[in-house]
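Field notebook, page 509. I keep forgetting to write these up properly, so this time I am using the form the group agreed on. The chain and the ligand, adenosine-5'-triphosphate, are recorded exactly as supplied. Prediction of the bound pose follows.
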Amino acid sequence: MNSRVLSCGLSGISGRLITVEVDISGGIPSHETVGLPGKAVSESRERVRAAIKNCGFPFPPSRVVVNLAPADLKKEGTIYDLPVALAMLCAAGFLKGESLINRMFVGELSLSGEIRPVRGALAMAICAKEEGIAEIVLPKENAEEAALVKGVRVLAADSLSELCECLAGKKEFQPHTPGEWQPSFEQGDSDMALIRGQYTAKRAAEVAAAGGHNMLLAGPPGGGKTMLARALPTILPDLTFEEAMEITRIHSAAGKLKGGVVKSRPFVAPHHSASAVSVVGGGAAAMPGEISLAHLGVLFLDEIPEFPRTVLEALRQPMEDGLITVSRANAGATYPARFMLVAAMNLCPCGNSGSKGRECTCSPIAMARYRHKLSGPLLDRMDIFVRMTEVSYDDLFDASASAESSASVRERVNDCRRIQMERFKDTGRYCNAHMNQKEIVRYCRLDKDANALYRSEFDLRGMSGRGNARTLRLARTIADLEKSALIKAEHLAEALQYLAADGFERDLI
Ligand SMILES: Nc1ncnc2c1ncn2[C@@H]1O[C@H](COP(=O)(O)OP(=O)(O)OP(=O)(O)O)[C@@H](O)[C@H]1O
Ligand SMILES: [Mg+2]
């Protein structure tokens, strides 16, 4: 007797339809899996047999062959436990073949027959929809994310025995109805109002959040660089449903999804001891790295010169393309990685350079070595440079100077992002920082005064092609914050000031 069940494999963040075939025949009892199974797939034999036995099916000793088709694609993970068990029960005559038609099954089994969650359920539901499969049966924990896909019925199951009763018609399937999706954000203990003084830096953070621009904060210790960067999530714009789908798909594939569906923008802050593989992705299982987990959110690199140069240089290509392709011996995977890079650093190894009260004791060589850790091309990708100084007594203790709260900054950022969403609808882009050259020419129109200013500043600053693009993108965001269709001279002037405050950018190279 043989049977077949549809299942789904994971390649990067995309699902691949897999057919699980089982043949049971007489002969010496054995269990063989073919079709390039990985270690976890080969081990499924033990889990499947125990689960079937513990669910009360008197499975006869027999020769079992499991084939996972297409046979030339490497199969990884524990996804196939459930479809293999069902195909075996069907081939042994415990289940009717019709109950398995037009359904996709994924799930890991425990020895007692419970169905455990898997990675990549959202990608699998999308695959079911693309393949025209009406229903997907998966673990309860994965139901919420899979239900984001319209047009596929999501059936959640707790255990193999319960699922078999439903398939035999003894019990009703309960299709999962998704809760209404609403964006949320985590305020935590941070708030922009807690950061005193630092007006330029806070304004720069607002512009960066509004347009998704990269930002480098530099200055002496204790000025509030880390504090400001960590307050960024409180002013980031609300997530849209499309963005939430993209982020959830990546987090799900990485097995990092907490609580169903992503509702707020990710803020990822790896330590400087992180390896290149953990930051950009890859490794034996070609998993997404921190830059992909930060997709459509913030990647914060605190003390950026302490990161190994290999890690920093590996960021260059994904920062340009918005995606990263990681390879391993016989397969590769492409992951989206459109993140906003926020970095913080001191200006010298002792940290006191730029300080009002403390003297820098670094030798010129030590200083040069420290600053050279950031390559020119990496600095060229930073849109906003902010040089922060220590906060003054007056700023810290002036009770009359009330600092603006994150909630009110967020309102402006959200208004600005709405203009951008309208501008880029149906392009797959969401904010000004991601504009391509064609869009820059189309949307970044300067008025007469701005044109005159740009002409005089362009040669003076020795602007490169990329420098021009990032100035115009930044000026577009500043104009959007003012709800101005044309870029005016004051918008352009502010954008130019962020590019190289105090010649700071050149200082660093
Ligand atoms: N502008 C500010 N307003 C209020 N408190 C501040 C400000 N700047 C710093 N502080 C206080 O100082 C602490 C340290 O600040 P923070 O860690 O952000 O400094 P930093 O610039 O990152 O320093 P380092 O270069 O050493 O990393 C904060 O947790 C906060 O309590
Ligand atoms: Mg710090």
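OBSERVATIONS:
- The chain has a mean pLDDT of 89.
- The domain at 2-167 is CATH 3.30.230.10 (Ribosomal Protein S5; domain 2).
FOLLOW-UP: compare against the apo run.
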